[in-house]
Amino acid sequence: MLDFVLMETERLYYADSHLLEFEATVSAVVRTEDGRRAVALDRTAFYPTGGGQPFDTGTLGTARVVECIEAEGAGVLHVVEGDAPAEGATVSGRVDWARRLDHIQQHTGQHILSQAFVELYGAQTRSFRMMSDASEIDVDLKDPSDEKIERAIERANEIIWDDRRVRVHNVTTEEAARLPLRRDSAREGELRVIEIEGFDFSPCGGTHARSSGEVGIACARQWERAKGLVRITFVAGRRALEDYRRANRTARAVAALFSVARDESAEAVARLQDENRQLQKRLRASEALAARAEARELLEEADAGDGLRVVARVLEGRDAEGLRRLAAALASNARTVALLGSREEGGARLVFARSPDAAPDMNALMRSACVALEGRGGGRADMAQGGGPRAEALDAAIEEAARSVRDSA
Ligand SMILES: [Zn+2]
User: Fold this and answer.
1) From the CA of 300, how far away is ligand 1's center (Å)?
2) 206 C-alpha to center of ligand 1: Å?
3) I want to staple 327 with a disulfide (CB 3.0 to 4.6 A). Which of 154, 213, 274, 338 is the partner?
């Protein structure tokens, strides 16, 4: 808690949200809870964080105003960096216009958008947050859809381009009761009502445009369901321009990769995905064919001896999938056992498989082979996999498995 008492600050932004330069008297210089220096003034044009709208920045004399805080019931604290003015001094304040205009555009845009949802669907806005790159409203909208939301965006932009006057009414509670307020205020006593001419009346303490045209444009970036409401992310004014530039850059970069016009890139991506699926299918078929051909060759070389053919091989550089495929192709031949291995960085892998009419237990063979590789492995009686870090023991492990198979035959 703040351990000092401040005089209530006269808020110049209430009467004029475009007032950027002002003179004031320093009523106190204090430390905030986290130890930063803060200046209290008798009057200020700086907006402190509140009502979903972030603080203004600017200068006080030669000091930089880096944050403005609403000190509960006491006034506005200007957190400064640099030389803080002395108590009792007269100081010139200057609000950063780019940031103020941005807040004006988002905030006024929000009033208009929220009323558009009420007008079209009777859907109230339950909360509003202005973030650094976009803003969010949570709207009580039933059955949301792109079309529904875009219709509200259309309506909001009609109001913006009508360039309607924005008026501030300071009214009593009784007077407020006669106004068509979009939402009730929790405040008692005098109320500040923002009117967007003939469209929206809502109680608000923020900074707003002089006329709706100053908002420029409002666009919905995305929406999602959130806690029974619909969360709409939107951008207005200059942010919409920045957002358009980003989106356009991305769309053009993607289109350039496909050598198509910007708006054809989604189609091009879909085509590529389709081609990719077809190729994968053909690749799988070719791989199966290659595995069968390789299996045939290996079987010809294999010693048929007493009728059980054993293919025991180290195939350098073969990946796990390739080994599995070849082992399966071999095991699809009668009375055949495949004992395959390959080396990879940091170790060796093994795949053992046998045809259904061969007896040896691949799982048991794999377990003992993996002991030699100092690794792990296992599987079913007809197919097992494993591996381990001792790659130098791979040949011996396969030979040992082959001997064991022949001995059992
Ligand atoms: Zn407002």
Assistant:
1) 84
2) 5
3) 338
For ligand 1, the distance from its centroid to the CA atom of residue 27, given in whole angstroms, is 28
- The whole model's pTM is what? 0.76
**Secondary structure (H, E, C), the chain:** CCCCCCCCCEEHHHHCCCCCEEEEEEEEEEECCCCCEEEEECEECCCCCECCECCCCEEECCEEEEEEEEECCCEEEEEEECCCCCCCCEEEEEECHHHHHHHHHHHHHHHHHHHHHHHHHCCCEEEEEECCCCEEEEECCCCCCHHHHHHHHHHHHHHHHCCCEEEEEEECHHHHHCCCECCCCCCCCCEEEEEECCCEEEECCCCCCCEHHHHCCEEEEEEEEECCEEEEEEEECHHHHHHHHHHHHHHHHHHHHHCCCHHHHHHHHHHHHHHHHHHHHHHHHHHHHHHHHHHHHHHHHCCCCCCCEEEEEECCCCCHHHHHHHHHHHHCCCCEEEEEEEEECCEEEEEEEECCCCCCCHHHHHHHHHHHCCCEEEECCCEEEEEECCHHHHHHHHHHHHHHHHHHC
pLDDT digits (tens, 9 = 90+) for 194-248: 999 999 999 998 999 999 999 999 999 999 999 999 999 999 999 999 999 999 9
Gap from CA of 1 to ligand 1 centroid (Å) = 28
